[in-house]
Amino acid sequence: MPFKPLQNKHVILGVTGGIAAYKSAMLTSQLVRAGATVDVILTEAAQRFITPLTFQALTHRRVYTDIFYLPPNESAPHVALASEADLLIIAPATANTIAKITNGLSDNLLIAIAIATDAPVLIAPAMETHMWQHPATQINITTLNKWGINVIGPATGRLASGVIGEGRMTEPDEIFDTACHILSKHGDMAGKRVLVTAGGTREDIDPVRYLTNHSTGRMGYAVAKAARNRGAYVTLISTAFCPTLAGVKLIPVTSAYEMNKEVLENLMHVDALIMAAAVADYRPEHVSSHKIKKEASLFMLALERTEDILQGIYNQRHVAKWPKCVVGFAAESEHLQENALAKIKKKGLDFIVANDITRHDSGFATDTNKVMIIGADGTIADLPTMTKTEVAHIIWDVVFAK
Ligand SMILES: Cc1cc2nc3c(=O)[nH]c(=O)nc-3n(C[C@H](O)[C@H](O)[C@H](O)COP(=O)(O)O)c2cc1C
Questions:
Q1: Phi and psi of 358, rounded to 5°?
Q2: 175 Cα to the center of ligand 1, angstroms
Q3: Test site for ligand 1: of 40, 66, 94, most ligand atoms within 8 A of the Cβ
Q4: CATH of 10-182, one of 3.40.50.1950, 3.30.2270.10, 3.40.80.10, 1.10.10.10
Q5: Would you give the DSSP letter of residue 56?
Q6: Contact 198/19 with Cβ under 8 angstroms?
Q7: Strand 203-204 to strand 210-211: parallel, antiparallel, or no bridges (unpaired)?
Q8: For 193-401, which CATH class?
Q9: In whole angstroms, what is the distance from residue 84 CA to residue 68 CA?
Q10: 188-236 pLDDT, tens per residue?
Q11: Residue of 96, 213, 315, 355 marked catalytic
Q12: pTM value?
Protein backbone atom coordinates (compact mmCIF):
# COMPACT_ATOMS: atom_id res chain seq x y z
CA MET A 1 0.00 0.00 0.00
CA PRO A 2 1.82 3.18 -1.13
CA PHE A 3 2.31 5.98 1.38
CA LYS A 4 -0.34 8.64 0.87
CA PRO A 5 0.72 11.88 2.49
CA LEU A 6 -2.81 13.07 3.31
CA GLN A 7 -4.33 9.75 4.36
CA ASN A 8 -5.73 10.06 7.92
CA LYS A 9 -4.22 13.51 8.32
CA HIS A 10 -6.17 16.25 10.07
CA VAL A 11 -6.18 19.35 7.92
CA ILE A 12 -7.67 22.66 9.06
CA LEU A 13 -8.67 24.80 6.09
CA GLY A 14 -9.20 28.48 6.83
CA VAL A 15 -11.14 30.47 4.27
CA THR A 16 -11.09 34.28 4.37
CA GLY A 17 -13.10 37.00 2.68
CA GLY A 18 -11.97 37.19 -0.94
CA ILE A 19 -13.50 36.31 -4.28
CA ALA A 20 -11.25 33.25 -4.52
CA ALA A 21 -13.15 31.70 -1.58
CA TYR A 22 -15.21 29.66 -4.06
CA LYS A 23 -12.04 27.84 -5.12
CA SER A 24 -11.58 26.61 -1.55
CA ALA A 25 -14.52 24.29 -2.11
CA MET A 26 -12.52 22.52 -4.84
CA LEU A 27 -9.49 22.33 -2.57
CA THR A 28 -11.66 20.88 0.21
CA SER A 29 -12.95 18.21 -2.12
CA GLN A 30 -9.41 17.24 -3.18
CA LEU A 31 -8.24 17.02 0.43
CA VAL A 32 -11.21 14.85 1.41
CA ARG A 33 -10.69 12.54 -1.58
CA ALA A 34 -7.02 12.14 -0.58
CA GLY A 35 -8.14 10.70 2.77
CA ALA A 36 -7.73 13.75 5.02
CA THR A 37 -10.13 14.75 7.77
CA VAL A 38 -10.87 18.35 6.92
CA ASP A 39 -12.21 20.93 9.35
CA VAL A 40 -13.13 24.20 7.69
CA ILE A 41 -13.13 27.58 9.38
CA LEU A 42 -14.78 30.54 7.69
CA THR A 43 -14.13 34.11 8.78
CA GLU A 44 -17.11 36.43 8.99
CA ALA A 45 -16.08 38.05 5.71
CA ALA A 46 -15.65 34.66 4.02
CA GLN A 47 -19.32 33.90 4.75
CA ARG A 48 -20.28 36.85 2.54
CA PHE A 49 -18.69 34.95 -0.38
CA ILE A 50 -19.48 31.31 0.35
CA THR A 51 -21.66 29.52 2.88
CA PRO A 52 -20.69 27.01 5.59
CA LEU A 53 -23.22 24.62 4.05
CA THR A 54 -21.00 24.06 1.00
CA PHE A 55 -18.09 22.93 3.16
CA GLN A 56 -20.28 20.93 5.53
CA ALA A 57 -21.62 18.99 2.54
CA LEU A 58 -18.10 18.35 1.23
CA THR A 59 -16.48 17.38 4.54
CA HIS A 60 -19.48 15.83 6.34
CA ARG A 61 -18.29 17.75 9.36
CA ARG A 62 -19.29 20.78 11.30
CA VAL A 63 -17.93 24.03 9.88
CA TYR A 64 -16.49 26.52 12.36
CA THR A 65 -17.33 30.21 12.16
CA ASP A 66 -17.43 31.51 15.72
CA ILE A 67 -14.62 31.64 18.27
CA PHE A 68 -17.18 31.86 21.08
CA TYR A 69 -19.06 28.70 20.13
CA LEU A 70 -18.17 26.18 22.86
CA PRO A 71 -19.79 22.75 22.46
CA PRO A 72 -20.70 21.18 25.85
CA ASN A 73 -17.96 18.93 27.28
CA GLU A 74 -15.46 19.95 24.61
CA SER A 75 -12.39 22.19 24.73
CA ALA A 76 -12.52 25.53 23.02
CA PRO A 77 -12.13 24.90 19.26
CA HIS A 78 -9.12 27.20 18.94
CA VAL A 79 -7.28 25.01 21.46
CA ALA A 80 -8.57 21.62 20.30
CA LEU A 81 -8.19 22.20 16.56
CA ALA A 82 -4.80 23.86 16.97
CA SER A 83 -3.42 20.87 18.83
CA GLU A 84 -5.04 18.18 16.65
CA ALA A 85 -4.01 19.69 13.31
CA ASP A 86 -1.38 18.10 11.10
CA LEU A 87 -1.56 21.05 8.72
CA LEU A 88 -3.28 24.44 8.63
CA ILE A 89 -4.02 25.83 5.18
CA ILE A 90 -5.37 29.36 4.71
CA ALA A 91 -6.70 29.73 1.18
CA PRO A 92 -7.51 32.33 0.14
CA ALA A 93 -5.66 34.49 2.67
CA THR A 94 -6.69 38.14 2.61
CA ALA A 95 -4.32 41.03 3.28
CA ASN A 96 -6.31 41.57 6.47
CA THR A 97 -5.84 38.03 7.81
CA ILE A 98 -2.15 38.00 6.88
CA ALA A 99 -1.66 41.30 8.71
CA LYS A 100 -3.48 40.04 11.77
CA ILE A 101 -1.44 36.83 11.94
CA THR A 102 1.86 38.67 11.70
CA ASN A 103 0.72 40.98 14.50
CA GLY A 104 -0.82 38.31 16.69
CA LEU A 105 -4.28 39.90 16.56
CA SER A 106 -6.33 36.81 17.28
CA ASP A 107 -9.82 38.28 17.19
CA ASN A 108 -11.33 35.38 15.25
CA LEU A 109 -11.11 31.59 15.41
CA LEU A 110 -8.89 31.17 12.36
CA ILE A 111 -6.22 33.57 13.55
CA ALA A 112 -6.34 32.16 17.09
CA ILE A 113 -5.62 28.70 15.64
CA ALA A 114 -2.91 30.05 13.34
CA ILE A 115 -1.17 31.48 16.37
CA ALA A 116 -1.85 28.54 18.70
CA THR A 117 -0.85 25.64 16.44
CA ASP A 118 2.49 23.85 16.19
CA ALA A 119 1.42 22.29 12.88
CA PRO A 120 2.93 23.49 9.61
CA VAL A 121 1.02 26.37 8.06
CA LEU A 122 0.45 26.93 4.34
CA ILE A 123 -0.87 30.32 3.27
CA ALA A 124 -2.18 31.15 -0.22
CA PRO A 125 -2.55 34.95 -0.47
CA ALA A 126 -5.12 36.39 -2.86
CA MET A 127 -5.79 40.04 -3.35
CA GLU A 128 -5.78 42.95 -5.75
CA THR A 129 -2.30 43.80 -7.09
CA HIS A 130 -1.84 47.08 -5.18
CA MET A 131 -2.85 45.41 -1.92
CA TRP A 132 -0.30 42.68 -2.59
CA GLN A 133 2.47 45.10 -3.52
CA HIS A 134 1.82 47.47 -0.61
CA PRO A 135 4.80 47.61 1.77
CA ALA A 136 2.54 46.56 4.66
CA THR A 137 1.66 43.28 2.93
CA GLN A 138 5.19 42.70 1.69
CA ILE A 139 6.65 43.21 5.18
CA ASN A 140 4.05 40.80 6.56
CA ILE A 141 4.92 38.17 3.94
CA THR A 142 8.63 38.56 4.74
CA THR A 143 7.76 37.99 8.40
CA LEU A 144 5.77 34.83 7.57
CA ASN A 145 8.67 33.50 5.50
CA LYS A 146 11.07 34.26 8.35
CA TRP A 147 8.86 32.28 10.73
CA GLY A 148 9.02 29.27 8.41
CA ILE A 149 5.41 29.58 7.30
CA ASN A 150 4.88 28.26 3.78
CA VAL A 151 3.56 30.96 1.46
CA ILE A 152 2.39 29.83 -1.97
CA GLY A 153 1.81 32.40 -4.70
CA PRO A 154 0.08 34.58 -5.47
CA ALA A 155 0.07 33.96 -9.20
CA THR A 156 -0.09 36.54 -11.94
CA GLY A 157 -3.21 36.41 -14.07
CA ARG A 158 -6.70 37.78 -14.47
CA LEU A 159 -8.04 39.19 -11.22
CA ALA A 160 -11.71 39.54 -10.30
CA SER A 161 -11.51 43.24 -11.26
CA GLY A 162 -10.71 42.20 -14.83
CA VAL A 163 -7.17 43.53 -14.58
CA ILE A 164 -4.23 41.24 -15.34
CA GLY A 165 -1.78 41.37 -12.48
CA GLU A 166 -0.14 39.77 -9.50
CA GLY A 167 -2.46 38.68 -6.70
CA ARG A 168 -4.47 35.75 -8.04
CA MET A 169 -4.74 32.81 -5.67
CA THR A 170 -2.60 29.83 -6.67
CA GLU A 171 -4.85 27.17 -8.21
CA PRO A 172 -6.25 24.51 -5.84
CA ASP A 173 -4.29 21.74 -7.62
CA GLU A 174 -1.00 23.43 -6.81
CA ILE A 175 -2.02 24.18 -3.21
CA PHE A 176 -3.01 20.53 -2.84
CA ASP A 177 0.32 19.43 -4.32
CA THR A 178 2.21 21.62 -1.87
CA ALA A 179 0.14 20.22 1.03
CA CYS A 180 1.18 16.71 -0.09
CA HIS A 181 4.80 17.80 -0.13
CA ILE A 182 4.61 19.33 3.35
CA LEU A 183 3.03 16.18 4.80
CA SER A 184 5.28 13.74 2.97
CA LYS A 185 8.36 14.27 5.11
CA HIS A 186 7.90 11.02 7.06
CA GLY A 187 7.09 8.76 4.13
CA ASP A 188 8.75 5.38 3.59
CA MET A 189 11.28 6.94 1.19
CA ALA A 190 12.34 9.73 3.59
CA GLY A 191 16.10 10.25 3.35
CA LYS A 192 16.39 8.69 -0.13
CA ARG A 193 17.80 10.73 -2.99
CA VAL A 194 16.36 9.89 -6.35
CA LEU A 195 16.88 11.17 -9.87
CA VAL A 196 14.14 10.87 -12.49
CA THR A 197 14.08 11.81 -16.17
CA ALA A 198 10.90 12.62 -18.07
CA GLY A 199 9.63 13.59 -21.52
CA GLY A 200 10.78 13.31 -25.09
CA THR A 201 13.93 15.10 -26.18
CA ARG A 202 13.97 17.53 -29.12
CA GLU A 203 16.75 17.57 -31.69
CA ASP A 204 16.97 20.69 -33.82
CA ILE A 205 17.06 20.49 -37.60
CA ASP A 206 17.03 24.24 -38.19
CA PRO A 207 15.68 27.27 -36.26
CA VAL A 208 12.05 26.19 -36.82
CA ARG A 209 12.08 22.39 -37.05
CA TYR A 210 13.09 19.56 -34.80
CA LEU A 211 12.90 15.79 -34.40
CA THR A 212 11.10 14.41 -31.38
CA ASN A 213 8.83 11.55 -30.24
CA HIS A 214 5.39 11.10 -28.70
CA SER A 215 6.48 11.11 -25.05
CA THR A 216 4.52 13.59 -22.91
CA GLY A 217 6.50 13.08 -19.70
CA ARG A 218 3.47 11.76 -17.81
CA MET A 219 5.19 8.56 -16.69
CA GLY A 220 8.31 10.39 -15.48
CA TYR A 221 6.23 12.98 -13.66
CA ALA A 222 4.20 10.22 -11.98
CA VAL A 223 7.45 8.55 -10.87
CA ALA A 224 8.83 11.85 -9.50
CA LYS A 225 5.58 12.73 -7.74
CA ALA A 226 5.22 9.29 -6.16
CA ALA A 227 8.76 9.57 -4.75
CA ARG A 228 8.09 13.10 -3.50
CA ASN A 229 4.88 11.94 -1.82
CA ARG A 230 6.82 9.19 -0.05
CA GLY A 231 9.32 11.65 1.37
CA ALA A 232 12.26 11.28 -1.02
CA TYR A 233 14.49 14.12 -2.13
CA VAL A 234 13.71 14.22 -5.84
CA THR A 235 15.54 15.77 -8.79
CA LEU A 236 13.59 15.68 -12.04
CA ILE A 237 15.35 16.27 -15.36
CA SER A 238 12.64 16.93 -17.87
CA THR A 239 12.26 18.25 -21.36
CA ALA A 240 11.27 21.91 -21.79
CA PHE A 241 7.95 23.55 -20.90
CA CYS A 242 7.41 21.28 -17.93
CA PRO A 243 5.33 22.27 -14.92
CA THR A 244 7.01 22.56 -11.54
CA LEU A 245 6.21 20.08 -8.78
CA ALA A 246 6.25 21.35 -5.21
CA GLY A 247 9.30 20.04 -3.40
CA VAL A 248 10.92 18.60 -6.53
CA LYS A 249 14.13 20.09 -7.95
CA LEU A 250 13.34 20.54 -11.62
CA ILE A 251 16.08 20.75 -14.25
CA PRO A 252 14.59 21.61 -17.65
CA VAL A 253 16.47 20.34 -20.70
CA THR A 254 15.70 20.07 -24.40
CA SER A 255 18.04 17.76 -26.28
CA ALA A 256 19.62 14.36 -25.65
CA TYR A 257 22.97 16.16 -25.28
CA GLU A 258 21.61 18.34 -22.45
CA MET A 259 19.78 15.40 -20.85
CA ASN A 260 23.03 13.40 -20.83
CA LYS A 261 25.03 16.28 -19.35
CA GLU A 262 22.53 16.92 -16.55
CA VAL A 263 22.09 13.24 -15.69
CA LEU A 264 25.84 12.70 -15.38
CA GLU A 265 26.25 15.87 -13.32
CA ASN A 266 23.50 14.90 -10.88
CA LEU A 267 24.39 11.29 -10.09
CA MET A 268 26.31 11.94 -6.91
CA HIS A 269 24.79 10.29 -3.81
CA VAL A 270 21.75 9.15 -5.79
CA ASP A 271 20.08 6.04 -4.37
CA ALA A 272 18.04 5.37 -7.50
CA LEU A 273 17.86 6.71 -11.01
CA ILE A 274 14.71 6.11 -13.06
CA MET A 275 15.20 6.89 -16.74
CA ALA A 276 11.61 7.40 -17.87
CA ALA A 277 12.49 9.97 -20.55
CA ALA A 278 12.28 9.03 -24.22
CA VAL A 279 15.69 10.16 -25.37
CA ALA A 280 16.35 10.47 -29.08
CA ASP A 281 18.73 7.84 -30.47
CA TYR A 282 19.67 10.03 -33.43
CA ARG A 283 19.95 13.75 -34.14
CA PRO A 284 20.70 15.70 -37.32
CA GLU A 285 24.41 15.61 -38.07
CA HIS A 286 24.34 19.33 -38.87
CA VAL A 287 21.92 21.89 -37.47
CA SER A 288 21.24 24.53 -40.08
CA SER A 289 21.55 28.06 -38.69
CA HIS A 290 18.96 29.27 -41.24
CA LYS A 291 15.57 27.86 -42.08
CA ILE A 292 15.97 25.16 -44.72
CA LYS A 293 14.15 26.21 -47.89
CA LYS A 294 11.59 24.05 -49.65
CA GLU A 295 13.42 23.41 -52.94
CA ALA A 296 14.39 19.85 -53.89
CA SER A 297 11.60 17.28 -54.19
CA LEU A 298 13.60 14.84 -52.09
CA PHE A 299 15.35 16.01 -48.94
CA MET A 300 17.92 13.77 -47.24
CA LEU A 301 18.72 14.39 -43.60
CA ALA A 302 21.90 12.79 -42.25
CA LEU A 303 21.57 11.64 -38.64
CA GLU A 304 24.21 10.79 -36.07
CA ARG A 305 23.92 8.81 -32.85
CA THR A 306 23.19 10.79 -29.69
CA GLU A 307 25.04 10.18 -26.43
CA ASP A 308 24.24 6.81 -24.88
CA ILE A 309 23.20 8.00 -21.42
CA LEU A 310 22.80 4.55 -19.88
CA GLN A 311 26.22 3.50 -21.18
CA GLY A 312 27.79 6.58 -19.55
CA ILE A 313 26.13 5.69 -16.25
CA TYR A 314 27.29 2.09 -16.58
CA ASN A 315 30.88 3.34 -16.97
CA GLN A 316 30.51 5.71 -14.02
CA ARG A 317 29.24 2.91 -11.77
CA HIS A 318 32.58 1.14 -12.19
CA VAL A 319 34.37 4.05 -10.52
CA ALA A 320 31.77 5.40 -8.06
CA LYS A 321 29.04 3.64 -6.17
CA TRP A 322 26.24 5.89 -7.43
CA PRO A 323 23.57 5.50 -8.42
CA LYS A 324 22.90 2.50 -6.22
CA CYS A 325 20.08 1.38 -8.50
CA VAL A 326 19.38 2.19 -12.16
CA VAL A 327 16.04 1.56 -13.81
CA GLY A 328 15.60 1.95 -17.55
CA PHE A 329 12.43 2.04 -19.61
CA ALA A 330 11.94 0.14 -22.84
CA ALA A 331 9.14 1.27 -25.10
CA GLU A 332 8.71 -1.57 -27.54
CA SER A 333 6.35 -2.33 -30.39
CA GLU A 334 7.45 -5.98 -30.77
CA HIS A 335 9.42 -8.70 -28.92
CA LEU A 336 8.89 -6.77 -25.68
CA GLN A 337 10.42 -9.26 -23.27
CA GLU A 338 13.42 -10.30 -25.42
CA ASN A 339 14.34 -6.70 -26.25
CA ALA A 340 14.00 -5.62 -22.64
CA LEU A 341 16.16 -8.50 -21.37
CA ALA A 342 18.84 -7.69 -23.95
CA LYS A 343 18.85 -4.03 -22.87
CA ILE A 344 19.12 -4.89 -19.18
CA LYS A 345 22.30 -6.90 -19.81
CA LYS A 346 23.88 -4.51 -22.28
CA LYS A 347 23.35 -1.43 -20.11
CA GLY A 348 23.98 -3.05 -16.72
CA LEU A 349 20.57 -2.04 -15.39
CA ASP A 350 19.05 -3.27 -12.14
CA PHE A 351 15.54 -3.19 -13.57
CA ILE A 352 13.82 -2.38 -16.78
CA VAL A 353 10.23 -1.26 -17.14
CA ALA A 354 9.06 -2.56 -20.50
CA ASN A 355 5.92 -1.15 -22.00
CA ASP A 356 4.03 -2.18 -25.07
CA ILE A 357 3.41 0.98 -27.06
CA THR A 358 1.12 -0.73 -29.57
CA ARG A 359 -1.72 -0.93 -27.00
CA HIS A 360 -4.23 1.92 -26.82
CA ASP A 361 -4.10 1.96 -23.00
CA SER A 362 -0.32 1.98 -22.66
CA GLY A 363 2.75 3.99 -23.57
CA PHE A 364 2.70 7.53 -24.88
CA ALA A 365 0.10 10.17 -23.99
CA THR A 366 -2.13 7.88 -21.92
CA ASP A 367 -2.92 8.04 -18.20
CA THR A 368 -2.51 4.29 -17.92
CA ASN A 369 0.32 1.92 -18.65
CA LYS A 370 0.69 -1.83 -19.14
CA VAL A 371 4.20 -2.76 -18.08
CA MET A 372 6.48 -5.61 -17.16
CA ILE A 373 9.13 -4.89 -14.55
CA ILE A 374 12.10 -7.13 -15.26
CA GLY A 375 14.97 -7.50 -12.81
CA ALA A 376 18.64 -8.18 -13.62
CA ASP A 377 18.18 -11.52 -11.83
CA GLY A 378 15.52 -12.50 -14.37
CA THR A 379 12.46 -11.90 -12.17
CA ILE A 380 9.50 -10.64 -14.15
CA ALA A 381 6.48 -8.82 -12.73
CA ASP A 382 3.87 -8.68 -15.48
CA LEU A 383 1.47 -6.01 -14.23
CA PRO A 384 -2.07 -5.46 -15.42
CA THR A 385 -3.04 -2.13 -17.00
CA MET A 386 -3.04 0.50 -14.26
CA THR A 387 -2.65 4.24 -13.86
CA LYS A 388 0.82 5.68 -14.31
CA THR A 389 0.70 6.74 -10.64
CA GLU A 390 0.09 3.13 -9.59
CA VAL A 391 2.90 1.92 -11.85
CA ALA A 392 5.18 4.57 -10.35
CA HIS A 393 4.52 3.38 -6.79
CA ILE A 394 5.18 -0.24 -7.76
CA ILE A 395 8.48 0.77 -9.36
CA TRP A 396 9.54 2.41 -6.09
CA ASP A 397 8.35 -0.60 -4.07
CA VAL A 398 10.48 -2.86 -6.26
CA VAL A 399 13.52 -0.58 -6.21
CA PHE A 400 13.64 -0.19 -2.44
CA ALA A 401 12.71 -3.78 -1.66
CA LYS A 402 16.03 -4.67 -3.29
C1 LIG B 1 -16.11 41.95 -3.43
C2 LIG B 1 -14.96 41.94 -2.47
C3 LIG B 1 -13.84 41.21 -2.78
C4 LIG B 1 -12.74 41.21 -1.92
N5 LIG B 1 -11.66 40.47 -2.25
C6 LIG B 1 -10.58 40.50 -1.45
C7 LIG B 1 -9.42 39.77 -1.78
O8 LIG B 1 -9.37 39.05 -2.79
N9 LIG B 1 -8.34 39.86 -0.97
C10 LIG B 1 -8.34 40.64 0.14
O11 LIG B 1 -7.32 40.71 0.82
N12 LIG B 1 -9.45 41.32 0.51
C13 LIG B 1 -10.56 41.27 -0.26
N14 LIG B 1 -11.67 41.98 0.10
C15 LIG B 1 -11.68 42.70 1.38
C16 LIG B 1 -11.89 41.75 2.55
O17 LIG B 1 -13.12 41.05 2.40
C18 LIG B 1 -11.89 42.52 3.87
O19 LIG B 1 -10.59 43.07 4.07
C20 LIG B 1 -12.26 41.69 5.04
O21 LIG B 1 -12.19 42.49 6.20
C22 LIG B 1 -11.40 40.48 5.20
O23 LIG B 1 -11.74 39.79 6.38
P24 LIG B 1 -11.05 38.40 6.77
O25 LIG B 1 -9.59 38.55 6.54
O26 LIG B 1 -11.37 38.23 8.21
O27 LIG B 1 -11.70 37.36 5.96
C28 LIG B 1 -12.79 41.97 -0.73
C29 LIG B 1 -13.94 42.67 -0.42
C30 LIG B 1 -15.00 42.68 -1.29
C31 LIG B 1 -16.24 43.46 -0.92
A1: -85, -15
A2: 20
A3: 94
A4: 3.40.50.1950
A5: H
A6: no
A7: antiparallel
A8: alpha beta
A9: 19
A10: 999 999 999 999 999 999 999 999 998 889 999 999 999 999 999 999 9
A11: 213
A12: 0.84
